[in-house]
Write a structure and sequence with these properties.
binds S-adenosylmethionine, binds iron/sulfur cluster, 372 residues, alpha/beta, 13 helices
C-alpha cells in the first residue's frame, strides 16, 4: 500500500460545505475580539495537590507557591461577577491543583448556583468519594470531569501508584450522585495512544458519558522540556485524530449518545475541524473566557504564564479588569507574525491557541503538528 502524505491544510472541492461551517464559527469568534462576552469562567481553586503528576502543567505540590484566596474573598469575587455580568449565561470550570482539597468548595459552588451560574469540577478523582459527589450535587453542580491518563499501568506511570482505581471510582461516584455530565479526560501521549478504545470502554463502564482527548503541553513541570515520551509526533497526531474521527462516525451511525471528542485550542484544518469535535472548538481565552487564579489574579486562562495576569480581583472588580485590561488577549497583530503572517487560514485561525502558542512557540500550529 502506498502511503500518501496529506497536507492538513489542503482544501478540496468536497470540503466546501465544511469550509462554510468553519467560516461561520470563525466569524462568531472574530466578533468577540472587538465585543468580548464573558460566558466561561475558570476558577483555579488551589495550586495544592495530593498527587505529583509527572506532566502537571501547573507544577502542583502539597504546598501552594502563592497566598490563596480565603473563602470570604472568593465569595466576594463571585458576587461581584454576578452583579456585573449575566450570571445565568456563565459556566464556571473549577480546576487546580486539586479543587477537592478546598473544604469550602461546596459553599462556593452553592453561591455560584444561587446566582444562576452553572459549574463543573476538573479533578483527579481520587478524593471524589460518594459523600463529596453528593455534596457537590446538592450544591447545584451537574458536570464532573475526571482525568484518566491510560489503563492502569500507563495512568499510574504519570499519576502515581494506587490512583487508577480511585480515579475510576470518582467517575462512578459522580454518576451515582446524579451528575448529568460525567466526563473522562485523557492526556494522550505515545504510551497510551494505542489504548484509546480500551480506555473509552473502561471509563464508560465506570460511568462516563463523554470522553475528551487532549494532548500534553510543555508547561509547568514540562516547561522547556522536549521529552519524546509526552509529545506526539505528526504521524501519532494523525493516528489520534483519525481515531476520534472514526469513533464519532461510529457513535453517530449507531445513534449512541456517548460522545468522544478531541480538544485543543488551535485550528485543525477545514477537513478535521468539525469531524473530531463539535463547533466552536478553538481558543476563546480573553474573548468569552476569563479566569480567577488561586491568589485572586485575573487572567484569560489558568494555562497561560502567570505573567499574563492583568491585575488582582482583590484590588479591583473582576469586571474592571475584564473590560479595561484584557487588550493583550484581544490584540491579534502580535500573533500575525512568523508562519502566521502569510497563512491563508489566518482569518479562520487568528494565530492558534493562546497558551499553546506561549508554551511552545515553535510548535503551536496544529496544521504543522499534523504534517510530516
Ligand atoms: C491541571 S489539572 C487540574 C485538575 C485535576 N487536578 C486533574 O488532574 O484533573 C487540569 C487538566 O489539565 C491536564 N493537564 C495537566 N498537565 C497538563 C499539561 N502539561 N498539558 C496539558 N494538559 C495538562 C490534566 O490532565 C487535567 O485534565
Ligand atoms: S495534573 Fe492535576 S492531579 Fe496531577 S499534579 Fe497536577 S493538579 Fe495534581
Ligand atoms: S500558521 Fe498560524 S494562522 Fe495559520 S493555521 Fe497555523 S497557527 Fe493558524
Amino acid at each position: 500500500m502506498r502511503f500518501i502524505k496529506r497536507s492538513a491544510g489542503a482544501v478540496g472541492l468536497l470540503d466546501f460545505p465544511k469550509l462554510v461551517a468553519v467560516r461561520r464559527d470563525a466569524a462568531r469568534r472574530a466578533r468577540l475580539f472587538t465585543k468580548p462576552d464573558l460566558t466561561y469562567l475558570f476558577w483555579e481553586a488551589t495550586l495544592r495537590c495530593n498527587l505529583r503528576c509527572l506532566h502537571c502543567g501547573s507544577s502542583c505540590e502539597a504546598r501552594s507557591p502563592v497566598k490563596e484566596l480565603e473563602t470570604a474573598q472568593v465569595l466576594a469575587i463571585v458576587d461581584s461577577i454576578a452583579e456585573d455580568f449575566d450570571a445565568r449565561r456563565i459556566f464556571v470550570s473549577i480546576t487546580g491543583g486539586e479543587p477537592l482539597l478546598r473544604p469550602d468548595l461546596y459553599e462556593v459552588v452553592a453561591r455560584m448556583t444561587h446566582h444562576g451560574m452553572r459549574s463543573c469540577i476538573v479533578t483527579n478523582g481520587t478524593l471524589l468519594g460518594p459523600e463529596q459527589a453528593a455534596k457537590l450535587f446538592d450544591a447545584g453542580m451537574r458536570t464532573v470531569s475526571v482525568s484518566i491518563d491510560g489503563m492502569e499501568h500507563e495512568h499510574e506511570a504519570v499519576r502515581g501508584r494506587g490512583t487508577w482505581k480511585r480515579s475510576l471510582a470518582g467517575l462512578t461516584n459522580a454518576r451515582r450522585a446524579g451528575f448529568r455530565t460525567v466526563e473522562a479526560i485523557t492526556c494522550v501521549r505515545p504510551a497510551n495512544l494505542h489504548q484509546l478504545e480500551e480506555i473509552e470502554r473502561t471509563v464508560r463502564g465506570s460511568g462516563a458519558g463523554l470522553y475528551r482527548l487532549i494532548t500534553i503541553d510543555r508547561m509547568g513541570r514540562l516547561a522547556n522540556q522536549d521529552g519524546a515520551d509526552m509529545w506526539l509526533t505528526p504521524p501519532q497526531v494523525r493516528v489520534l485524530l483519525d481515531h476520534v474521527e472514526r469513533r464519532r462516525r461510529e457513535l453517530a451511525k449507531a445513534k449512541d449518545r456517548f460522545d468522544v471528542r478531541f480538544s485543543c485550542g488551535g485550528f485543525l484544518g477545514v477537513e478535521r475541524e468539525l469531524t473530531v469535535r463539535p463547533g466552536d472548538g478553538q481558543c476563546f481565552a480573553g474573548l468569552c473566557v476569563g479566569s480567577i487564579l488561586a491568589d485572586g489574579q485575573v487572567s484569560a486562562c489558568p494555562s497561560l504564564p502567570r505573567s499574563w495576569a492583568q491585575g488582582s480581583a482583590l484590588d479591583e472588580r473582576f469586571s474592571k479588569i475584564w473590560y479595561g485590561k484584557f487588550k493583550d488577549y484581544r490584540e491579534t497583530a502580535w500573533r500575525k507574525t512568523g508562519a502566521c503572517s502569510d497563512c491563508s487560514f489566518w482569518e479562520i485561525c487568528q494565530g492558534g491557541g493562546l497558551h499553546e502558542r506561549l508554551a511552545q512557540p515553535e510548535e503551536f500550529c496544529w496544521l504543522d503538528r499534523q504534517d510530516g
